[in-house]
Amino acid sequence: MSSPPCGSQNAERPRASGLPGLRVWICVLGCRSNLYEGEAIAGELASRGAAAGGALEGCRAAVIVSCSVTAAADKKCRQAVRRARREFEKFEKSGGRGVVAVCGCWAQKVSAEEARALGVDVLIGNRLKHLLPDALDEAVSGGGGFVDRRRDVGSDGTWDALSLDRPVLRTRAFLKVQEGCDHFCSYCAIPFLRGRPASRPLEDTLEEARRVVGAGCREVVLTGIHLGAWRGGEGTDGGTLGTLVRRVSALPGLARLRLGSLEPFALDGDLLDALAESPVFCQHLHLPLQSGDDEVLERMGRGYTADGFARVCERARAKLGDGLHISSDVLVAFPGESERAFHGTLALMERSGLGRVHVFPYSPRPGTLAARFPGRVSPGAASERAEAAMALGARLLNRYAARFVGSRLSVLAENLKTHETPSFTGYSRNFVAVAARGAAEAGQEAEVRITDCSGGELLGEAEEVRGGYPE
After folding, report:
1. CATH number, span 408-466
2. Whole-angstrom Cα distance, residue 433 to residue 102?
């Protein structure tokens, strides 16, 4: 799978001046790596005088960080473009102009013809997102027509030079430390769209973590496309992910450390030791299961068995404690998945004691091996299986969350309520949603006495509040 050429992205251009005062909608779709990229782009735009945020109304430009993991993700990208164009039509009728910029995985593969027909003005591929602020500036300033800067990432091992000083869109800081994947699961197009693995150098990662913690951010999430493949960057002695966890954990002022999605086979002894030693590691791991049937797992190319996944969960809890929250992804209706195989997945979800579960019906991705597999499950059966898996996931999450009723949990305040009685929502250290009565600012950490559990969400009363971003 190849991408269009990037054109003249290396050409020297005079700096345009269309960003100061510009209101920009930042729409982030998909994975945690996209969340980091959206934050970094928003931060750079803000540093140049733009007002970058999550509300579309009143904006004159849109930046969509796109996803293409499923057909539904592709659809959401197109919908976001159309939504922005509809908003911009309101003032374009009076002679104004709105600019839509799209970057990421869907942008990497979409044809220029389709993008232009949808109303995209700027198209930026993977490994080139650091070019987006300049490209948006150029487009807003009327520097030309359609901008298309993409290249073939199949053999690209470069690091996209994005940088973050503090979160702009969220209270926690996602720090992307790894890019690309060469595992090539049979259903997944991401290796074709993201390219081969590349790691961010250790010292570069630590410097960014110091900046965001120094700005008042209490929680850092290390993320990547294949996070367990982090090796400190070319030409460095950065070690493995366990090394990075130890070094980040030692940073003064950091209160909470999380990991993004981690393949089960990447959770080795050294990483478990590092997490157990960390005074700031949050008791949560996201380990994608996908299927609980060995034959399906083999056709998927996942690299583990159902028993192997269960043993990984057991080892993690033995090292990190029984209270560890293990969330997961489940892919149902894979070609050839029988009813027996599907029920094996449900059984393994129960056996492994999962909490939050994201469920996806199989979506054929062009260019992948599985797109040619026989035995396609009917849409009706796929929908029924997805609903059954989601229902079980909801029960498992509620069962896990309910154990904390009567205890005190530390909650990072995110969404504030301004009713007569002040309240806020956020997540506990073990990644359970909490709604609490009491006053707290976004980014502060509150001790909450848990009084009830409903639908997998904990309810409680805030007692002690600390930290937060300085004015």
Report:
1. 2.40.50.140
2. 31
